[in-house]
């Protein structure tokens, strides 16, 4: 029988001292290696602070473990720089998708609002029957009414699948890997909280490739405290005021970013990339009314 987890249990875990969290995370890591064998596990390395901490935790006991960086073709320059450095520090390979970000957007739609909302919009727009279309509309009306006016917009959740997760899964299946270590935390979204409730840290019961998420009960403060204590090298992007790395032009969650969003910050920190955005992707923001105009900001 699967363990029943609760939000109160998650809150309790999140409130633990960092040294106890470290011990618990290392135990989750050992359980994963014991379950699948190190030759069948890999670290999904993004170049961000969370995967940096996770990598450090794992390599203390398993320094030979493979790291895989999935190049989505629109990572920040600082991320590519950190990946090049990381390659000299561990066993790391890079994989690249068959399509680039622009091609995926043109074929499937732009990643906007959230994966769930964009996925529902994609389902609605590509429905092969009236019943599917009606069900998509009803779901949006009931659960995401705020976004119902965008059902006919060319938005989609396919970027992650085509540029990152799908490529990682194909590579791992081809090369005999069964489980990935992923640096995610439950506090980052409701969807991740729900994922922890369903699967815990070691999601071995999920369909397809299994996952170990040893940082699920950590907080943002824990991450930075760990980085400070061990003096870890991290992506320079954080020194420019960014909270996360990832794809430069991703629209997931951008509507919640105040007082400035990631695209406005891009206009200050990476002018060339911002101009590419203006030429190719600003039209999708125009559809939503989300501001992307250049503004004067303090990066620190």
From TrEMBL:
Span of domain Phosphoadenosine phosphosulphate reductase: 41-111, 115-250
Q: Which organism is it from?
A: Tissierella simiarum
Name used for this protein in its record = Phosphoadenosine phosphosulfate reductase family protein
Write down a Pfam family by its short name: PAPS_reduct
UniProt-listed PANTHER family: PHOSPHOADENOSINE PHOSPHOSULFATE REDUCTASE (PTHR43196:SF2), SULFATE ADENYLYLTRANSFERASE SUBUNIT 2 (PTHR43196)
């Amino acid at each position: 029988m699967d363990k029943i987890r609760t939000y109160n249990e998650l809150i309790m875990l999140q409130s633990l001292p960092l040294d106890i969290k470290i011990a618990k995370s290392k135990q989750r890591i050992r359980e994963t290696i014991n379950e699948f064998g190190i030759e069948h596990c890999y670290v999904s390395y993004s170049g961000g602070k969370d995967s940096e901490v996770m990598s450090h935790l794992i390599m203390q006991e398993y320094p030979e473990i493979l790291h895989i960086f999935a190049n989505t073709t629109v990572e920040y320059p600082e991320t590519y720089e950190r990946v090049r450095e990381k390659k000299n520090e561990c066993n790391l390979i890079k994989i690249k998708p068959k399509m680039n970000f622009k091609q995926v957007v043109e074929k499937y739609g732009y990643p906007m609002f959230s994966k769930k909302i964009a996925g529902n919009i994609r389902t609605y727009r590509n429905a092969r029957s009236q019943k599917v279309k009606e069900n998509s509309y009803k779901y949006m009306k009931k659960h995401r009414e705020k976004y119902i006016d965008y059902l006919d917009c060319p938005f989609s959740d396919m970027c992650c699948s085509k540029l990152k997760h799908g490529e990682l899964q194909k590579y791992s299946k081809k090369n005999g890997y069964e489980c990935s270590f992923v640096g995610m935390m439950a506090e980052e979204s409701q969807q991740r909280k729900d994922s922890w409730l369903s699967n815990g840290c070691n999601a071995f019961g999920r369909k397809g490739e299994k996952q170990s998420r040893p940082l699920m009960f950590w907080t943002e403060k824990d991450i930075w405290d760990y980085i400070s204590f061990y003096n870890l090298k991290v992506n320079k992007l954080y020194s420019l005021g960014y909270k996360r790395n990832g794809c430069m032009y991703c629209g997931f969650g951008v509507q919640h970013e105040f007082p400035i969003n990631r695209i406005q910050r891009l206009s200050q920190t990476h002018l060339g990339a911002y101009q590419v955005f203006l030429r190719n992707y600003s039209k999708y923001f125009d559809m939503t009314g989300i501001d992307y105009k250049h503004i004067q900001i303090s990066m620190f």
